[in-house]
């Protein structure tokens, strides 16, 4: 059976979770707790040496990187529910949006999320305890991000990321003004991967994402949230509670 190692249904962990639920595939869910730094534990780094979720185990194969996992599931497990266009042009359009969310949209939202929430997980640690946690992180860039989250991100960086978020939600809203889905005519991995980042922004970034300023984006978020697979996913997989943990 497929085994998925992930956090809760948000951001990059949501992408393969929602893909599995949309396709109706049976899988073993292995929920890691970021507040306990389980993704940096030796047992998990034996699965993914980078110490990052999500990771999919399919027999003797390990697949990492959230969008790649989604495409792998489409390749290896075709179902009546297809999340990728059948024609080359449609697939190209889909990949433009999945590339954009991975390389641009996700990163600016992530930085603000780390600033607001993730850094709280290490506030109660002593300097020595924190450095011990950081030593277990195999990716140098992630070590830097943890230190910034603990110390506080520079204001000019936060301002630039908010500018990028404003640009991103405007781009999505403009496109969705004329299209039901990101790839015209079909709900695809493009929608899943962007929804994983955009969901909840009408609350967390209400000054940017709201019915007055981005009505088409809000419509799209709410429309996806009403899909049966999305409701089932949220019913079965609990969201994270980020913050200091005893």
From TrEMBL:
Positions of the GST N-terminal domain: 1-81
Domain of life: Bacteria
CDD domains named among the record's database cross-references: GST_N_family (cd00570)
Residue ranges of every copy of the GST C-terminal domain listed in the record: 87-246
Record-linked Gene3D superfamilies: 1.20.1050.10, Glutaredoxin
Family listed: Belongs to the GST superfamily.
Protein name as annotated: Glutathione S-transferase family protein
């Amino acid at each position: 059976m497929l085994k998925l190692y992930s956090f809760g249904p948000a951001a990059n962990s949501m992408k393969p979770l929602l893909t599995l639920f949309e396709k109706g595939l049976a899988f073993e869910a292995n929920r890691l707790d970021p507040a306990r730094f389980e993704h940096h534990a030796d047992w998990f780094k034996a699965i993914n040496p980078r110490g990052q979720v999500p990771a999919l185990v399919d027999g003797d194969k390990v697949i990492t990187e959230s969008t790649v996992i989604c495409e792998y599931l489409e390749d290896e497990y075709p179902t009546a529910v297809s999340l990728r266009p059948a024609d080359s042009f449609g697939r190209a359009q889909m990949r433009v949006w999945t590339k954009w969310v991975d390389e641009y949209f996700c990163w600016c939202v992530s930085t603000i999320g780390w600033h607001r929430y993730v850094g709280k997980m290490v506030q109660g640690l002593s300097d020595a305890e924190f450095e011990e946690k950081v030593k277990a992180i195999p990716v140098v860039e992630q070590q830097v991000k943890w230190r910034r989250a603990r110390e506080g991100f520079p204001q000019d960086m936060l301002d630039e990321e908010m500018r990028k978020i404003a640009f991103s939600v405007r781009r999505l809203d403009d496109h969705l003004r004329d299209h039901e889905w990101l790839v015209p005519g079909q709900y695809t991995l493009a929608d899943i991967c962007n929804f994983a980042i955009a969901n909840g922004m009408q609350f967390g970034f209400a000054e940017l994402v709201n019915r007055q300023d981005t009505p088409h984006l809000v419509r799209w978020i709410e429309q996806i949230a009403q899909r049966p697979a999305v409701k089932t996913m949220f019913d079965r997989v609990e969201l994270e509670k980020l913050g200091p943990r005893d």
